[in-house]
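Reopening: Shikimate kinase still failing for me.
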Amino acid sequence: QDIPLRQKSIVLIGFMGVGKTTIGKEIAKKLFRDFIDADQEIEATFGLPASEIFQTYGEHVFRQKEKEIIQGLCNQKLKIISLGGGAFLQEDIRKMCLDKCIVFYLDLSWESWQDRISLLIDSRPVLQGKSLDEIKALFEERKSIYQDHHSTVPTDQLMIDEAASYIVDSLK
Ligand code: S3P
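Support: Ran it again with your exact input. Result attached.
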């Protein structure tokens, strides 16, 4: 059964560390809705941070749980949901989200993003052991997946509050 547009949950996608969680919380405040971080839900089911889930069980176990969790979240109405940066690489997740939710891609330039690497590296298993060139290649490769078919938020030029307002205003 179709969810009416005004009740659809909002899903935020984009590369690691672009601000999906921070901006998502701000949108939730503005719209008086609940915020859910898909990564936190995954971590809660294992009782471990993402980096340890990768280490202990392997990435495929993380990805499988990620799909299950996001499927459950997509079926809820009126939520603000942030996804991990790798979620949209799974076609099933892309389809579910595009079908049931309103998806926004938080776009940040490589120049702005690379200033944040040192803050992210310890907690992001996907970045570990990679050279800067390899990380840049991943960044570019994923950009082409994220930007297909979704509303893009120009995060470079916006403060957190402005990015949240940009999304809220575009719903009107
Ligand atoms: C991942 C991004 C992380 C987390 C996991 C894998 C990725 O989420 O899901 O470490 O593959 O890009 P954030 O985008 O919130 O950092």
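Residues 16-17, 20, 39, 50, 84-86, 124-126 surround shikimate-3-phosphate (CB under 6 Å). If you still see a failure, please send the error message rather than a screenshot.
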